[in-house]
């Protein structure tokens, strides 16, 4: 196969459009011709800082992991009916052999990789190769940019599962960015009776009015009161964990956003110990999360289109990332493949 175009990050703020060889098709895999990739906060961290949490960019790496495209090639032992279908791609690449994977928690695989997490190349390129069980058919006729957002929707579906949101739950969501706004839909679909979405950034608060929460609150005015059974912390701001004081005794705090490298709010440990607050990590998505996300889309339970605020062609990927970094009015920016630009 001929080389393909890709957006390759060489160093912080050094993103280049280059030709790279396509990945070989391995057993049980499919090749997906990429249609669109949504930019995630992790992409912005790698671009701005050369790292995302503990993971550091040490070699040139293709960005991106929120992806949809059309299956253009299948391995002999993969499902031939996938050929030609539009799919959302689950970017995790677990080993499938370790005790963690065998137990079903493949998202926690100690040796697992993920598209766009250095040194594993991501999806802002012409094609990607993925295990056939990690691509998920989306509803026929779905817009390709919306299909790319099935991945972040799966993140919040998993968070709702981890937090055990059920019928009658009262949920506080901190962080009104794309993940927080999608979390409103996931919590509602899980049965939440009341959802409050909070932030401290005026641009985020303004965009959150259409997310479907019962109330949008400015957390600069203080915690919204002790009434919630679950907290979904989606901002990654350690200071936001002061809102653990808004949980009823025995409540659950789920950590969804990647934490910034600052000490957490001191209220966290004191409140968790005194009131038996369960603090649960949420890492990407586990078994069934993508299926749940696709089901929400299919049943019209979530509006992905409202999150898409800009589209850029692949050759302008650097501009796309800089726009997402510098203009906080944007929610989701998509990088389009060449034929969809």
UniProtKB/TrEMBL annotation:
Protein name (record): Alcohol dehydrogenase catalytic domain-containing protein
InterPro entries: ADH-like_C, ADH-like_N, ADH_Zn_CS, ER, GroES-like_sf, NAD(P)-bd_dom_sf
Reported cofactor(s): Zn(2+)
Domain Enoyl reductase (ER): 10-335
Family, similarity comment: Belongs to the zinc-containing alcohol dehydrogenase family.
Keyword Metal-binding attributed: yes
Gene Ontology MF annotations: oxidoreductase activity; zinc ion binding
Keywords annotated in UniProt: Metal-binding, Oxidoreductase, Zinc
Species in which this protein is naturally found: Allosaccharopolyspora coralli
UniProt lineage: Bacteria, Bacillati, Actinomycetota, Actinomycetes, Pseudonocardiales
Pfam families: ADH_N, ADH_zinc_N
